[in-house]
Design goal:
four-stranded mixed β-sheet; 3-hydroxyacyl-CoA dehydratase activity; single chain; binds octanoyl-coenzyme A; alpha/beta; 2 domains
Length: 258
């Protein structure tokens, strides 16, 4: 499918979605969020794709929601249409692993979008921030919640209240990103991580994603029970038999997602 605000490339079992609004630092307008949501829905259904990379440009992953589109909106417009909120649901609902490969600015909705992915790989040029407070608003796509979970109350409060940006090193120390890599190697590293994931059984990776995400939604005992049941469930798959046999036979497993 052809998109106007992003590109989608598929290589073997990996799909790369690149946000592409270069004139607006990849600001997230309604069209982009709709196309992102459509692209993710299609990739999630694909039999071939096993891992998705979401990235932007060298300068900007995304500099937030599109301010030009929001400037004249009223409470009633926001409350009744709630476009942003609904388009974002597809990102969360995607069952295949999504890696955010972030270079340059990830601000406001851009930082929130990166945090909706399963983990963030950051270029050493990455800058994260929730500067909505400078616009007389506040984070609205999960920033007060996901940033707080990722970096703790002190840093989340400071960033959201003052609008201060975090550089890549600080983001790694704080636990917001999994790793920092040289900007030139960002996509190579993201592909390598995606290839590792794509080698595994899609049944395992989807079950892991669902179980880790449960830890944010439920008390420990419920999360542990959910994990145990998912673990038990994987013993009904051919991939479990193949993975264990291959280990014992000292060969590479051939996972088929069955
Ligand atoms: N929206 C629209 N246009 C933008 C945005 C944006 N968020 N960010 C940058 N642009 C545009 C600029 O207006 C400029 O356009 P033009 O060339 O036509 O003047 C172009 O991109 C380049 O930007 P700059 O000239 O400003 O580039 P600099 O390198 O000087 O600065 C920055 C880069 C620091 C990224 C700067 O552009 C900036 O501060 N941008 C705004 C960041 C921001 O405030 N983000 C938060 C937006 S609000 C939000 O995300 C709320 C999300 C929750 C919504 C939930 C709804 C339910």
């Amino acid at each position: 499918m052809a998109y106007e605000t992003l590109t989608v490339e598929t290589e073997d079992h990996i799909a790369i979605i690149k946000l592409n609004r270069p004139d607006a630092m990849n600001a997230l307008n309604k069209a982009l969020l709709k196309e992102l949501s459509d692209a993710l829905r299609e990739l999630d259904r694909s039999d071939r794709v096993r891992c998705i990379i979401l990235t932007g440009s060298e300068k900007a992953f995304a500099a937030g929601a599109d301010i030009a589109e929001m400037v004249d909106m009223s409470f009633v417009d926001m409350f009744t249409t709630d476009k942003f909120g609904r388009e974002c649901d597809q990102i969360i609902d995607t069952r295949k692993p999504i890696i955010a490969a972030v270079s340059g600015y990830a601000l406001g909705g851009g930082c929130e979008l990166a945090m909706m992915c399963d983990f963030i790989l950051a270029a050493d040029t990455a800058k994260f921030g929730q500067p909505e407070v400078n616009l007389g608003i506040m984070p609205g796509m999960g920033g007060t919640q996901r940033l707080t979970h990722a970096v703790g109350k002190a840093k989340a409060m400071e960033m959201a209240l003052t609008g201060r940006f975090m550089d890549a090193e600080e983001a790694e120390r704080a636990g917001l990103v999994s790793r920092v890599v040289p900007a030139k190697k960002l996509m190579e590293e993201a592909r390598a991580a995606a290839e590792k994931i794509a080698e595994k059984s899609i049944l395992s990776t989807m079950a892991i994603k669902e179980s880790v995400n449960r830890s944010f939604e439920s008390p420990l005992s419920e999360g542990l029970l959910f994990e145990r049941r998912m673990f038990h469930g994987l013993f009904s798959t051919n991939d479990q038999a193949e993975g264990m046999k291959a280990f014992l036979e000292k060969r590479e497993p051939q996972f088929r997602g069955k």
